[in-house]
Amino acid sequence: MMLIPTHHFRDIERKPEYLQPEKCAPPPYPGPAGTMWFIRDGCGIACAIVTWFLVLYAEFVVLFVMLIPSRDYVYSIINGILFNLLAFLALASHCRAMLTDPGAVPKGNATKEFIESLQLKPGQVVYKCPKCCSIKPDRAHHCSVCKRCIRKMDHHCPWVNNCVGENNQKYFVLFTMYIALISLHALIMVGFHFLHCFEEDWTTHGLTREGTAEARLSQEKTQPHKVSSTECSYFSPPTTVILLILLCFEGLLFLIFTSVMFGTQVHSICTDETGIEQLKKEERRWAKKTKWMNLKAVFGHPFSLGWASPFATPDHGKADPSQYVV
Questions:
Q1: How far apart are CA 157 and CA 319, in angstroms?
Q2: Domain that holds residue 179
Q3: Active site residue 157
Q4: CA dihedral defined by 10, 15, 19, 24, rounded to 10 degrees?
Q5: How many C-beta atoms surround the C-beta of residue 23 within 10 A?
Q6: Cis ω on the peptide bond leading into residue 302 (within 30° of 0)?
Q7: Which one is catalytic: 24, 132, 146, 157?
Q8: Is residue 82 part of a domain?
Q9: What's the CA gap between 58 and 308, in Å, rounded?
Q10: What is the pLDDT of residues 192-225, one digit of tens each?
Q11: Which residues cross the membrane (predicted)?
C-alpha cells in the first residue's frame, strides 16, 4: 500500500479551474499604511489586561513596599532602575507582539488573476484555505481566532491576544524572557526583604512587643508625617506580608510558565519547526539550516544589541511568490 504524505490531506488543488476562484470575493481594499493590527477577541483582550495588571502590581509592591522605604539608597536605586527597565522592556515586547501582524496571508487572494500570476507548471501544487479563501504559502496555517492564515504560525497566545508567527515571534520570545527575568528579580528582592525586616523591624517593632505599638501610636500623633528610621514598609506588617506573599506566588508562577515558554520557543527556532508542525508531525519540506542561521532569520541580521530590543524590527525580506507553490 502506498503511503501518502500527511500534507497531502490538506486542501490541494492542482489546476486553477479546480480552485473555483469565482467563488472567492476579491481581496478587501488594503487599509492605509501603518494601520494597527489588533485582534478583537474578548478572551484575548481580558488576558492582555490581566497581564498588564499583574506587571503593574509587581511594580507597585517592589517600589512602595520594598525599595522606597528602604534605608539603603544605593540598593534601592540600583534595583529600582534594573526592575523598571526590565518591566518596561517586557511591556514594550508585549505591545509589539500584540499589535504586530504575525504574518497574515491576504484574505480572499484565491482569485483567477492571482492564480494566473503564479504561472503554475504541470505537477505543481498550491493550497487553498476554504475558510478565508486564500492561497496558502508553504508552512502557513489557519487560525480560528484571528480568522486568517498565518505564515509559520506557532500557536495562538491569548496572553498577547495574537498569533505567534513569522513576523512577531521575536517579540513574543523577548516578552517571555523579560517576564521571567522580572519574576526572578522580584523573588530575590522579596527574599532579602523578608530576612532584613524579620530580623530588624518586625520582630522588635511589629510582631513581638506590645509596648512598641503604643510607642508608635504616640510617635504618629506627635510626628504624623515622619517615618521611623526602622520602618521596612509604609504599610503595617500584616499588610506587607500579604502583599509580599501575593507577589511571591505571582513571581513563582510566571517564572516557571515563561521560562518553559521561552525554552520551547528557542528550541522551535533552532530546529526551524513551529509548534503546530511538531504537534501534527508534518513532513519537513523546507531546506535545513544551521541553528545560528535560524536565530538570525527570527531576530534579524546580523547579531547585535537589537536582538534584545523590542523596538528593533527584524528584516524578513519580501514575500517570495514561489512560497505558494510546492
A1: 25
A2: 37-105+140-203+232-317
A3: yes
A4: 130
A5: 9
A6: yes
A7: 157
A8: yes
A9: 22
A10: 988 887 665 555 444 444 444 454 445 445 444 4
A11: 45-67, 73-92, 171-195, 241-262
